[in-house]
From TrEMBL:
GO CC entries: Golgi membrane
Biological source species: Zosterops lateralis melanops
Family of the protein in this entry: Belongs to the galactose-3-O-sulfotransferase family.
Topology class, membrane: Single-pass type II membrane protein
Protein name: Galactose-3-O-sulfotransferase 2
Domain of life: Eukaryota
One example of a Gene Ontology biological process annotation: glycolipid biosynthetic process
Keyword Methyltransferase recorded: no
PANTHER family (alphabetical): GALACTOSE-3-O-SULFOTRANSFERASE, GALACTOSE-3-O-SULFOTRANSFERASE 2
GO terms for MF: galactosylceramide sulfotransferase activity
Length: 398
């Protein structure tokens, strides 16, 4: 029996109304659940399956100093080998792309004949976007990495102690930061670049510039325009997961063994007062770091979400542990005097004891090749790839 005034047409209207009300509630539920996990995606995006992505193979990495960048370079070189990509390597016997001079395309081996046909660029250079674009394709993905300037300056001091006049003339890092202008002379910028705002310099800017708000904001904006992604070395594993997603690479592509690290007994202790002095002395780097540390976490919340990030970091560390157990006889880095195969001895500098690895000797040929790539130091890997890409040239001497 029909209710008064309830026609078939009215019933259809009620059913449609209930259907859309249910959809609205369901989408609101997903949206609220999404917000709880820190993922900034609309409910429409959640209901539509993501499109499959394609791995990016044209990539430029600005290799900054003392930021874990040697480990990133190893990742880039391995990826280039895996897919038979062409790397923009330094010309002749150099291991950097003209650094500390501002980069020009002629610093790349073979540029005059190869032209804009390189896939990967990742050796040290001082960034010059117009010249880099002469070498790299229009669809190149640009990224770099930053580190907290406080441990960065301490690391630079120990590593470059014998090369930088400002460091040589002071007894330790505490003495230097207590009165940096006593030891630092801007006129000797080529020798002293590692002593102040080194990341600012690597990005192509004046590391002795006045810390003016209008100037620093303009530089930060320009860096945002030139780079698709800035990673943070203090959150290295999280950075590798973000990089994996940005490049659409596999997990094994970003697995790493830490390279160019030093023994803990060479680390010099800093007081809270020392740290504040470094922030003031390297104020340009400090602003650079703070700005991109914030954008780093915003990027994670927008693209991955903290819950997924945590899970993928765990997967990365599990896989890393598996490879260390497979490859390494000690399953950890060892001091320079304990490295048995001198072909895997990393470059040593200053007062730092740069660690390396010993491989197990019972590995089959395929596994040995994989493990050798994981532990191959920067200079040796650059020399190896140079010989592969330019067999008629004299091999770079390590």
């Amino acid at each position: 029996m029909k209710s008064p005034g309830c026609t078939p047409r009215h019933v259809r209207c009620l059913l449609l109304f209930s259907f859309f009300l249910g959809l609205t509630c369901l989408s609101a539920f997903f949206h609220m659940k999404n917000k709880n996990y820190g993922i900034s995606k609309s409910h429409e995006e959640l209901l539509v399956p993501p499109m499959p992505c394609r791995a990016k193979t044209n990539v430029m990495f600005l290799k900054t100093h003392k930021t874990g960048s040697s480990t990133v370079l190893n990742i880039m070189f391995r990826f280039a080998e895996k897919y038979n990509l062409t790397v923009a390597l330094p010309a002749d016997q150099l291991f950097h792309l003209g650094y500390p001079k501002t980069f020009v395309a002629q610093f790349v081996e073979g540029f005059e004949t190869i032209g804009q046909n390189y896939n990967i660029m990742c050796n040290h250079l001082r960034f010059n976007p117009l010249e880099v674009k002469r070498v790299m394709a229009a669809n190149t993905f640009y990224f770099s990495i930053l580190r907290n300037p406080i441990p960065l300056l301490e690391s630079s001091y120990v590593y470059y102690k014998n090369n930088v006049p400002s460091f040589r003339s002071s007894r330790n890092v505490k003495e230097f930061v207590a009165s940096p202008t006593k030891y630092y002379h801007p006129a000797d910028y080529r020798e002293n670049i590692y002593a102040r705002n080194i990341m600012w310099f690597d990005f192509g800017y004046n590391n002795n510039a006045k810390d003016d708000t209008r100037y620093t904001q303009a530089v930060l904006k320009e860096i945002e325009q030139n780079f698709h992604l800035i990673l943070i070395a203090d959150y290295f594993d999280e950075s590798m997961i973000l990089l994996k997603h940005a490049l659409c690479w596999d997990l094994d592509d970003v697995i790493y063994f830490k390279l160019n690290s030093r023994s803990r007994d060479t680390v010099q202790t800093l007081s809270p007062e020392d740290e504040e002095r470094i922030k003031a002395w390297c104020s340009l780097d400090w602003k650079l770091y703070l700005h991109f540390n914030q954008s780093f976490w915003r990027r994670i919340e927008k693209t991955i979400g903290l819950k997924v990030l945590e899970k993928e970091v765990d997967n990365l560390r599990t896989r890393q542990k598996e490879l260390m157990e497979t490859c390494l006889s000690e399953q950890e880095a060892v001091r320079k005097d304990q490295i048995r195969n001198r072909a895997f001895l990393p470059f040593q500098s200053g007062a730092a004891d740069i660690l390396g690895y010993n491989l197990r000797q019972d590995l089959d040929n395929r596994t040995m090749r994989i493990c050798e790539k994981m532990v191959r130091p920067e200079l040796q890997y650059t020399s190896y790839l140079y010989a592969v890409q330019h067999p008629h040239k004299k091999r770079k001497e390590v």
